[in-house]
């Protein structure tokens, strides 16, 4: 066997693998021995017919595919190992045969998607936005209120109209031009006002109703509504309100503070602020790092293989599907609600997937250009930090790490050092969000 590697288009290489007639014959004989049990010939027990007899009955190429698979499995991994410094495969190859393929001209062509070459332009001395977020007293109060709402008791309300946040029990009949439409009618339906689970304007229309009230609420269906006949159409819902259930929030006192892990109300507020500040710092750092990569990527050139884009799309899609499944929604129901299919939804992720892949490739190129590494001491310190967070000794904790976890720790250190370098070597301008206009 001999082979030849040549660069091809769109970050692929062609590996032409030529097999000698002797290699083909040996592999063909092995394919016969491994697969003869699948075939029967009159006059022979199944699996006992000679190869020449099977070829006579089933055709000369009966073991052609199995022979190719054997040769591929034997030689392709070995070629990749020999060429590991020349290129890095990022997906399975597309296989084809040379023109005039035969036992004496057996050339298998593997078109392999490979890690692309990346060229970056200026990555130092650039003016880049830096994002910082502050935590206000209002943010702390809002977070505390959200926690109190989560811990609230449900209470039946009879002395006031419905408000946002209440759960109302209603009947409704939806009509277009005075005629009820399919799917627009329900009885004794529980709806949480402010959940945005109904058409825009519906929940707002229920606000202010009292028990026993009957009200016509006029709405317009969104242009992207799943039912084609209702898109952008006006409708009138006749709503009857039967019951209002509100929430009774627990008092913000020492008892609640202790329940939430603090000794006093002030201690609890301090704890909330520290958490929010940590989240704000993390958000600012993440958005700043993304801004840095976005600016540098503008000058980068790279021919990204389709397999990397598809892989990122699939990862993003599965992450989204897992999130909605945690909410009790089946992905197939979600796509049906949106009026789309999984493949169509995946296609919409292409632009963002391409951006994410480019950013990752630029990141790896910058690590290479700046020769950024993680020392054993730095890795050890990070492992010790993680061990302390779970109450273990570093040596004991390190034994539980597999090679991939250790590699993740190493990469995390390198990336942190790279962004520290980029922050120090670019003109970081504090981003100020434009005030919202009334």
Please specify the SSE layout and strand pairing:
Layout: E1 2-8, E2 12-19, H1 21-35, H2 51-58, H3 64-82, E3 94-97, E4 106-113, E5 118-119, E6 127-130, H4 137-150, E7 153-157, E8 167-176, E9 179-192, H5 202-206, E10 214-220, E11 234-248, H6 254-259, H7 265-297, E12 301-302, H8 306-326, H9 331-338, H10 342-348, H11 350-369, H12 376-389, H13 394-399, H14 403-424, E13 427-430
Parallel strand pairs: 6-13
Antiparallel strand pairs: 1-2, 2-4, 3-4, 5-12, 7-11, 8-9, 8-11, 10-11
Helix pairs in contact: 1-3, 4-7, 7-11, 8-11, 12-14
Could you give a quick summary of the protein structure above?
The protein has 438 residues and is of the alpha+beta class. Helices cover 45% and strands 21% of the residues. The strands form 4 sheets. Strands 7, 8, 9, 10 and 11 form a 5-stranded antiparallel sheet that branches.
């Amino acid at each position: 066997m001999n082979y030849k590697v040549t660069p091809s288009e769109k970050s692929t290489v062609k590996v032409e693998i030529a097999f000698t007639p002797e290699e083909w014959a040996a592999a063909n004989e092995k394919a016969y021995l491994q697969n003869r049990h699948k075939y029967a010939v009159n006059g022979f027990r199944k699996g006992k017919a000679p190869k020449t007899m099977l070829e006579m009955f089933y055709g000369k190429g009966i073991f052609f595919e199995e022979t190719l698979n054997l040769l591929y499995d034997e030689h392709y991994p070995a070629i990749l190992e020999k060429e590991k410094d020349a290129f890095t495969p990022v997906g399975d190859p597309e296989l084809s045969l040379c023109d005039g393929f035969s036992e004496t001209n057996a050339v298998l062509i593997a078109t392999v998607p490979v890690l692309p070459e990346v060229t970056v332009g200026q990555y130092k001395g650039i003016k880049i936005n830096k994002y910082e977020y502050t935590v206000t007293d209002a943010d702390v109060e809002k977070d505390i209120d959200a926690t109190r709402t989560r811990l609230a008791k449900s209470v039946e309300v009879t002395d006031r109209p419905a408000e946002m946040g209440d759960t109302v029990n209603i009947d409704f009949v939806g009509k277009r031009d005075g005629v009820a439409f399919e799917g627009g009618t329900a009885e004794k339906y529980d709806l949480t006002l402010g959940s945005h689970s109904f058409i825009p304007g519906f929940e707002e229309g229920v606000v202010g109703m009292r028990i026993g009230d009957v009200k016509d609420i006029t709405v317009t269906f969104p242009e992207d509504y799943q039912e084609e006949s209702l898109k952008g159409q006006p409708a009138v819902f006749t709503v009857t309100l039967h019951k209002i259930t509100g929430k009774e929030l627990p008092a913000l006192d020492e008892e609640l503070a202790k329940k939430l892990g603090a000794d006093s109300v002030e201690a609890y507020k301090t704890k909330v602020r520290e958490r929010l500040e940590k989240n704000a710092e993390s958000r600012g750092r993440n958005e700043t790092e993304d801004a840095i990569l976005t600016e540098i990527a503008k000058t980068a050139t790279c021919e990204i293989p389709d397999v990397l884009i598809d892989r990122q799309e699939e990862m993003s899609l599965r992450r989204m599907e897992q999130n909605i499944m945690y909410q009790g929604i089946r992905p197939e129901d979600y796509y049906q609600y949106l009026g789309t299919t999984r493949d169509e939804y995946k296609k919409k992720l292409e632009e963002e997937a391409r951006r994410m892949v480019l950013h990752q490739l630029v990141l790896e190129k910058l690590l290479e250009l700046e020769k950024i590494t993680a020392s054993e001491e730095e890795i050890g310190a990070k492992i010790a930090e993680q061990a302390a967070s779970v109450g273990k000794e570093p040596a004991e904790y390190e034994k539980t790490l597999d090679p991939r976890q250790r590699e993740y720790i190493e990469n995390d250190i390198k990336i942190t050092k790279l962004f520290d370098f980029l922050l120090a070597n670019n003109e970081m301008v504090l981003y100020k969000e434009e005030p919202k206009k009334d």
